[in-house]
Every structure is written in structure tokens, then in C-alpha cells.
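agent> step 3/5: call structure_predict on target 'Histidine triad (HIT) family protein' (Psychrobacter luti).
agent> reason: downstream docking stage needs a structural representation; sequence fetched in step 2, passing through unchanged.
tool.input:
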Amino acid sequence: MTQANQETKYDDNNIFAKMLNGDIPYHKVFEDDKTLAFMDIMPQAKGHVLVIPKQKAVDLVDLEPEYAAAVLMTSKKVMQAQRQVFEREGIIQMQLNGSQAGQTVFHYHVHLIPSSIHELGRHAVTQADQGELAEMAKKLAEVINA
Ligand code: 5GP
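tool.output (status=ok):
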């Protein structure tokens, strides 16, 4: 793995690494051999999903081409399901590199947010209802797997 920058080294105990290891629970939307998609616990809009690679990458610089492709393909699947489930065309695809940009979890991830840039909620502030997250994950998974 190449290092993302001088400041941030990959931490095996970051929250997404723990999810990949099965150490903490999450509301799964989709999984394949190279990626995992799950509901964001502090969504910036209803239906906010995160897509992560199964690679130890801090940010975009670290991401290997096969994982970059896999993350994009999973993101397409998730976004198409979001359009259907939430009945809206507009989905924001966002990805933060480095704490200066506002990144808070240092395992590369793509945000897919059913919202508008003019209506986006605050970043990683308000916890969503677990029951609602479970319900949305189930609906999205059903559409993806149909
Ligand atoms: P970043 O700031 O790194 O771009 O985004 C990290 C995202 O992870 C935030 O949107 C935040 O709400 C989400 N997040 C942080 N901790 C957890 C967690 O324990 N579970 C889930 N599902 N999402 C989390």
C-alpha cells in the first residue's frame, strides 16, 4: 500500500476496519468480494449510504485500481436502488480526502446521499433511528438483489 499523506497512516482499529472484521454491527446494503455498502449512522439526508473497499486505504491516493473500479460499480448499484426506493433522481456522490477536507474516518469511502447540494444536512452530527436505518437497508438490498 502506498501512503496517502505524511500525516495519516492506516489504522487497523478504525471504525470501518472493525466493521469489515465483523467486530461492530452495521446495516448492510450490499457486499461482494471487494466492497461493502451500509447505511451511514449520522446521515446528511434520509437514505445516506457509504461504500467502502475491502482494502486498507486511507484515501484516494491509496486506492488500488481494482478496488477503485469495484467501489464505483457498487456505488452505481446502490445509487440506482436509492433512485428507486426514495423516488428521486438527485443523488450526491461525495468523498473526502484528509482531515482538512473534513474526513473523519480514515478508511476510504464514498458517500451516496439522496439530496441536493443546496439541502445537504450537517456532516456526521445527528444519529439516525436504528429501526429506520434497518428498514432502508432492507429495501435497498431487496432492489439490488432483485
Ligand atoms: P468522512 O467524514 O470520513 O467522510 O465520513 C465518515 C462517515 O462515517 C460520516 O458520514 C459518519 O456519519 C459515518 N460514521 C461514523 N461512525 C460510524 C459508525 O459507527 N457507523 C456507521 N454506519 N457510520 C459511521
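agent> step 4/5: record observation. The chain has a mean pLDDT of 95.
agent> proceeding.
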